Fold each of these.
Amino acid sequence: MSLTVQSPPSPPLSSPSSSQGRSRLRLANGSTAPSVISKLPRSFPVVRASTGSSSSLDTGLSTELDAVSTFSEIVPDTVIFDDFERFPPTAATVSSSLLLGILSLPDTIFRNAVDMALVDSSCSSLDNPELRLSCFYNKALANVGGDLTKLVPGRVSTEVDPRLAYDTHGIIGKVHDLLKMYNEINVPPERLLFKIPSTWQAIEASRLLESEGIQTHLTFVYSFAQAAAAAQAGTSVIQIFVGRIRDWARKHTGDSEIEAALNRGEDPGLALVSKAYNYIHKYGYKSKLMAAAVRNKQDLFSLLGVDYIITPLKVLQSLKESITAADERYSFVRRLSPQTATNYIFTTEELKKWDQLSLASSMGPASVELLAASLDGYVDQVKRVEELFEKIWPLPNV
């Protein structure tokens, strides 16, 4: 049996070339975040199973990937360019971990984008070493992000320096700087998201940036309070890490939100996605919800209907290889929908207007600890990139 990939009906903005498909760079954010996010319109390719010259439409067969993709946009957790045909990405994230990967693979198609950042005169002329390295870092993000916009049809999310996580004006200033760099290479703002952690200061930055028409992507959401505050801020994309919450719950106790989910017999990570989705749709917020750290097919089946599901390649491969007959397709059930969201009952406390004090008092130990650990990991990666830049700058023969 052979598998072929068919493009979605709507034409993509651009297509990767065959030479790009041969590059072996893994676009991943390590253990801290997925490297691929979805664009707003659903355009994940339809994967059809075929035997010989017959198509799945001829035989009445399709894959589980076909079935689940009718409910949510299913996007790869990581992308290897050799896998472009198997799992074409709809969009991407440029991050510190991606830069580390590029620096470890000098022949990657993105290395020139990084080298061009290191010879940028506006950065190299800075006398302060810290400012110079920070400038190189941001220029590299924008250059690589610009290249990614030519490879994927959707939006590219750019990681904002996590060291600014508790500085609202610092985040806004950094996003404006990145936008200026993208503008210099002719990348329009509608192709961009800016990825920031879900501290109160970052949520407030998201509110102000969204009011300017700048799209934001809030990550490291581990509690309902964070998700609700982000929705009220008008954040474009809210990202919840299902598996990380589950992992915390297996090793710790004392978080009332997690304990409540467990007492209902629910997985706390899946329960948070469901609750956040119902809140967004019941009260008409514009945010799109992204479920990440999905560990297996059962997780994915439990989330059908959420806007985006970031899915590991091994799970995608299993979905793609699992063939379903026509009458089996209807066994997949949409778990989340705007219609069922109207029936969800929220407490008066949950419907409050969130502010810094109420967010801080409502975040339990799980979200506090997971947010801190996630930020530490991001900051460490940025420092490693800057250390590598310091070692290789100035470039030889330039």
Note: The two ends are 52 Å apart (CA to CA).
Amino acid sequence: MADYLPEEIVINILQRLPVETLLRCTAVRKSWYSLITTPEFISSHLKLAAAASAAASNDETPLLLIRRRISSSERYELHSDGEPFTRVFKLKFPFSSTNSYFTIVGSCNGLLCIYDDRVDYTDTIILWNPCIKKSILLPEPNLIHNSYGGFAQSFGFGFDAIAGDYKVVRVSCVDDLNPQIELYKLSTGAWQDISSHLKLERCFIINDRSRQAYVNGATYWIAGYPDPDSDSCDFIVLFDMSKEVFGEIKLPIEVLGTDMMISKDLMVFDEHLALVLCSDSGVEPTFCVWVMKEYGVEESWCKQLVFEFHILGAIFIRPLWVRKCGGVIAVLQDGGLYSFDLNDDEIKDLGVHCSGYEYYEHSFHVDSYIKSLVLLERGAYFSDSVTCDQLMPNQQIYDCDSIGSRESD
């Protein structure tokens, strides 16, 4: 049929096919392989997939990536963020961690950025597209942790829409001194120390294990000041992936000066920056969600959701994600994921559980996900087999499996 159709129509059809079908198409015709692996096709396919996900029609519900730990293994799955909450893909994880599990920096355009430093610091940082079995092991950063002095590091991951480049920013501090900023660009494959190029108003330290939120081309973290004589209130620090500069955003006025024991996380809610506060120290422990309605406008913070723990009948809860429908996905003390509809106080067991032991709440990670062809143009050199041979010899590599062939939980 392709021989009788104009090329532009064939391209238009191919751009709308799912990733799994396109991978099979690359083996059908050499011309299709050459087309599908071009950066231009990959970019166009991604834009159409992102538009379909944003529209969230009945036929195209958004996907959520869920990572959990079962016994000694990490499980990565894609779930449909709708009703019912169903698993649509089970992803085979081909890497082995020196620690209990990898830390997930974030998800962007089908790529995951993960690194291995949960307890023991390593220099293993990976960009991974699980649906096309492609990954890149990043080179060793310039500043390496040693056994002398205090050391802390945080990562951010995102996309520079102007340059069309994926970037990883690393913020590392030794003995609470001025942070060293390093930037990895996929286009160059190298780390660059950009500390001297930046003009930081004040030295800051990103809160330990602060989860990044990536929205509007920037990555955000909860941070504070190392100087005990300075303003002790937390704030939000951001890194613009295109301009390669840092900025600061104040927390909502109502939050400033509150109990410092309140945990703070950043998430994305309906393409807006969201601040999730969680406290179990009050008479009626609660968590609430603040949303920044206008990008970068501190006065636009709005309290969106409030939920009281006692309704759950649970001792501990950790919110993980704010759904587009307005509900909240959280992990409870039994090691299971639950969804809370704040409109009618309805609680649903999502049927996803991890091993119920110490640190269970940290083994869960929930993030948005979109299947893409990003990294496909990199060729065989960047395949999982190359990455895994460096990390773990003889590690078997698997395809992205559909739910029809999934293993039992």
Note: DSSP finds six helices and 26 strands in the chain.
Amino acid sequence: MSFQDIPVEIWTYIFCLSTEYRQSNTLSTSSSFSPRFNTFSAIRQTLHRDELRRALDPVWEMKFTLPLVCKLWREISSPMTYEQVYVGQHATSLLEALQRSETSSPGRGIGRQVQRVVFNYFGLEPPPPPLSLLEVLRWCPNVAYLTKEDADLTPPSLPSHSITEAISFTSIQRFDWAFFQRMLYSRERRVKDMHGLDFLRTVITRAPELQYLRIAVTFPNFRTLSTLSYHIKATSLTTLRVEHIGLIRGELEQWEFPNLNTIVTDSSLTRGTFSPLFGPGIRVVEFLRDESLLSDALRVLEKCPNLRELVYYVQYASIVQPGFVHGELETIRLHSVRNRMLGDAEIADIVQPQFLSILNGVYPSLRRIIFHGAVEGWKDMASLVPGFEKVCDEIRHRQLCTLEDEFGNPFLLN
């Protein structure tokens, strides 16, 4: 097969792989802009400017090189050049370029090719001048994936009614909102904190197609909440991911998510009491690594009677109360990462009852156990948990469910 005989679809797939910024891709499908989540995905920490530049440079170099090869490659790869926009140090220049492109070519500006916008000012010194973030979205009407992860440099006037009414949020399907709260507070800092929440509320309220929402606060001691009650209803939202939300939990639980079926969380929604967000409508729960989950994570089975899939780190959760039976659970995904807070004997005490419960019929509808992580981690666990391999063999022998690795192959330690 010659160069010219390769189908355009193959070239497109190759170019997508070669121009993908993998550190920022936390999605489970082939599309980098799917609103779905990826099991055990590590949402990347916000990078310092130099780290972000080093991570992005190879991607940008590839994106700028492909269109120079030939006319066909230019036609295929040009839209990929602008599909992701990072709003940071050169925010003002970016906004001017977007405006100029749309003005010179109405309906065909480069902003219409943008699918993902990341607002990331964290670590920039000096910080950029205050910029209405929504002005960027004005010129990018097809954005499906919006990320805001910074210390919130929103000007005091945002969001004003005139600005928000002029911008359409109807294309946004996924919104990742990570707020980097300062430990030292001034009056000005507290005011800006409130504007960060305003931006969050504005997007959720104005995005009718929003399917995936992530809310994270780097420093959980969030002390700037208003006593006002905000009634927000996200009709299309199916996946909610929350991390270190602290006192924001109270407001979050006032919002309505009538179609919510997937929750990804650390101890934010289980600390003290289980959040009322857990209920009969939830089909998938993923617990992130969090030592606070150790004693109560699997109580979620009692709160979600229709749960179909449970995802968690096996060394960070204890077994449900003896005698409890969950008749709907079909899939359990486990990760082997070591809990360094526990000694060897404590790990055995935590892990062994979880697998014995399967033999004892706690999950009569269980079809699959999927083991994530390196096989070396599972071998290390097997050396600490007496009878681990025998229990796995017994599960296979009784045909209670299949044991698979994360790629769909039979799970084997040998």
Note: The longest strand covers residues 145-150.
Amino acid sequence: MRPPPSSLCLHPASSLFADYYDLSPNKLIMAVVVDIIAPPGALGLVLGTHPQGGPIVQDVRRDSPLSGQVQAGDKIISVDDDDVRVLNHSNVIQLLRDKITNNERRITIIREESKPQGSPERRSSISRRTLAGLVGAAKSPRSRSTEPGSHEPDESGRPTVNKIISCHETIDDGEDVNECTNRLSNGLHLDHIPTLPRFPVLETKDRNCWSEPTHTNFGIRGHNYLVDPKNKIPSGPYLFTARGADLILTSDKSGPRTEIAETYNSILAGHARSTPTFIINFIFDWGILVNYFEIPAMYVSFLRARYEGSNQDLPPMENLQPHERAIIRFLVGSDDHRNATLKLIPKCPEGPWAVRQLVNGKPALIGKRLPTQYSYHPAKDGKQECFEADLDTRETDRVGKKAISLCRRYMTSVTLDVGIVIEGTNTSELPEQMLGCVRIHRLDPLMAPTLPSR
């Protein structure tokens, strides 16, 4: 027996589903998320495309097997867990036809219900329904409470969709709905921002998580690359172990998006500074994507010498491996040198053809293509050292913007490898070796937390 649908009680100032519904100030909008199990065969639904994009039910025929379950005005958001919000009605019709012989098809819809404020019925619940696997908030490893103002990126890449507080509580007699929303929001502040779980994750069907792919997936510069540019070899083991990843949305109320290790103790579920960590922070219009890597002790020693004037003995550079020299010169060098050697190798092992073709493993000196800010934070008050690179993707070139737009649009169906290597620029730094990589599995921005105010 299917569980009852979840209700989303939206206070009038909220803009969740603002692209789909007219949130007039004298209404309380109830947006209900419903799973419909459709049988094989024709469904008798007349679909159209909403003016703001996405498929919408225009009519339900009398002989439809879904009569009484689906109604005109329902917004279709997924089919068998495939996000269809960016598709038009023709694409969704074809998708349903492709599955016409399946024993069942799960169609997830959002339905608007409204009633005037001041209605005699005073008891309402506030809850959130996620779309990645449609798991209950209590069971999801990524479920969280959020403050008002969190956003999902819209078609332009800018945040437009507010998220809802994840809890259940009734409104006291005589209490205004807005007051209840604010009270719940204030009471749900988290000490730590929930971090992405590590793959595999049963509850989300391996979505919205991270892993560390094999290092041999990457071809890097070999011994003779400067003589023969075709001399690419599989990388040796990663030099920095991946610690985790976070997708965090931003709003007008969020604090700074740079130097996050120093500003927010809550990132990586509060453990970002529990060990020396290298942070790569990609800044977008609508949020940040953060990758965390553990810095081995030898490199921490060089950072201390560079920033703190530490007098501890350091190994002679001539005794080090070529890739070790390259990384040390990056860590202790000038920002210009860092920008000239910080190299990103993005790959898309799973996703739509257009994304895989564009994000194909071609290396890019990311420091030369994006405004990049570097910062070092010494160990103090029980927090370990941290070196951070903040890369502002909002200032990328045309090709970069296209790649980012595609990845954002298909975020829920894309698996992305974010590989980092320090470029070897002379024979003493070759062959290269991958610094580290984080694989991001099909992120759902509806499940992401919001960066708090400072």
Note: The chain has a mean pLDDT of 79.
